[in-house]
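To illustrate this point, what follows is a protein record of this kind.

___
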Amino acid sequence: MTVANSSSRALVIGSGFGGLAAALRLRALGQEVTLLERQPDHGGRARVFRRDGFFYDAGPTVLTAPFLFDELFALFGEKRADHIEFLPVAPWYRMIDHQGRAFDYGGTVEDTLREIAKFNPLDQSGYLRLLETSRRLYDTGFTKLSAEPFSSLTDMIRILPDLARLRGDRTVYDLVCRHLRDPSLRMFFSIQPLLVGGNPFDTSCLYSLIHYLERQWGVWFPRGGTGALVEALLALGQRHGVQFRSDATVEEILIRHGRAAGVRLAGGEQIEAGLVVANADPPTVYRHLIPAVHRRKWTDRKLATRKYSMGLFVLFFATNRRYEDVAHHTILFGPRYRGLLDDIFKRGIVADDFSLYLHRPTATDPSMAPDGHDTFYVLSPVPNLQHNIDWESEGPRYAQRILDHLQKTVLPDLDQHLVSQFHIAPPYFRDQLLTTHGTGFSIAPVLTQSAWFRFHNESEDVPGLYFVGAGTHPGAGMPGVLSSAKVVENLLRRAA
């Protein structure tokens, strides 16, 4: 079946936050919008898993820059707060070094300075300098550039003076070391690139803007979880005429007269449209949805040269008791920092030690689990599938090692209270989310894969094809993928 062609029809592939935001912004521009999702449920990485009577958010646990969600509702004259509540997270993160020393990050600047003094009072002034540097990075990297397209080399040349002034060639870790002396504090304040798929020792210090972003806008959690936020955005779109389809697998982007003209679904159905927006991993889109004859720039050979982010191992579990003294976000560091990251990003091995990111949503929203219970997920960075790891056999062993470590550290008697568990590993990201090499965040956020060097929001190979999401500008993380939809909106406004 073929749906009649319409120049005012837009198709969005994928229902992650980038795709949802793009669909809403396109609808506000007057487009007839249909969003296609290959899974039976919506949300992409932010989908919800239901196991053993519990539900688990699969995706982001940190909500920053809440105004980006407010904007989506405001496009249609609505207020976000009327539909979903954002709850403040306190502390933002509890970070614990391998010696068991805890650092509660969040609250006021004064609160942070008091926590720093527990480790090294001399680093208090260094933190203030780091925060000021982060503010300058934020003013340029986020305020000025996050919603601006980088479609031409001219766009890149325009920001080179800013990059030079801000020393974008330095890594995040280098920048932090210039301001802080304590080894643990250096870890605590340099991990942010890991939240968007980057190695702090390779990632440009531009990503240190996250410090000021969190300070400026806070860290939040939607009541009912990120799944509830997805539902709120779906309902917003439905109220205003966006069509949503699930179980709709795109097998090819149709190209006619050199332009994107729609898609072909599994089963043969063709849907024609004036433009196509892909909220999907760009290497996957280019390699599998666009015939090679239409790819002069993004050839298979060129795609193979990209540097890809790490993989993720995520363990979900529930307990029949509440661990009330465990914060919403707890980051547990192992005895090694750079060595462990080298194992993950360079050597491609599953190390004997690990660092863990523990998410306990009931700390902020008790409704996320039944009375007397807790639900958790714990995330561990691991090598992607460019490395030969058999996750079918390694996965259960790795999960048990994580549970054993949590029991020894922050969740005593866990084995006596565990009532549900399952995990996902890089093969899930490859097979279900269709990321190249099973990465957690598409390509890595190194300087040579940022801005103009990243996959462009407007395809260089196929006019009428646009990208939103982690793999395109400005990058991964909720603020990044939401801003990528603003970039596409700006491109279309300029072309109108």
Notes: The mean pLDDT is 93.
